[in-house]
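Incident log, entry 3
Record: cAMP-binding protein (226 residues)
Problem: checksum mismatch between cached and fresh output.
Input:
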Amino acid sequence: MNSDTLCAMRRSRLFSAIPAADVAVLLEGHRTLTLPDGALAFAEGTPADSLLLVLSGEILIDPSAVSPQLRLSVGDTAGEEAVLTGTPHAATGRAAGPVTLLAVPAGVLMAYLESHFDVAIATISAMAGHLREQVREITELKMQSTAERLASYLLALAGDATGRAVVRLPYEKRHLADHLGMDPATLSRAFAKLRDKGVVASRTDKVEIADVAKLRTYGDCAAFTA
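Fresh output:
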């Protein structure tokens, strides 16, 4: 097992509940998948024959009519709800740039969990916590206007910075628009709304924030219309 796989498994909520000595059992029959940008990782309505663990890159879960897009990165798993319930995938996942996935056969995972009740309970608990976080993220995004979503995202990138800050978007703006639940034209308008708050976006991945504290106050207190 290489270091990338070990690192991703340690970061995974699901695999962190599984004793290290048992990891080899789960990797029996596993596959490593390398996908190019935009490639389909799994499709809504298709059977879930494997649990997917992101080893590198990111997977985008297509949004529904009412929810923004979700983004899965290193250590995140996809398809667990379908594997554990024996139902088809409830959404579609696509590669956001090149991505490498570890595919654990559904049958191997289920056989292991059925024979290790304590681990199964811990795994379900970990999944429930992850689901709560995703629901909270979606709820917060839906309550914010497009400009507020963008401001919150940029502030997260800025971290604890104060005063002037320069942040770099970790992926293309079209993927950022998907993640924030808007189309590219709406994202451009959101950037335009933030200009008078000192936010200047370059044509590349660099975004300059003139005053982080001012933007933070704006994101906390202002009310926008999208």
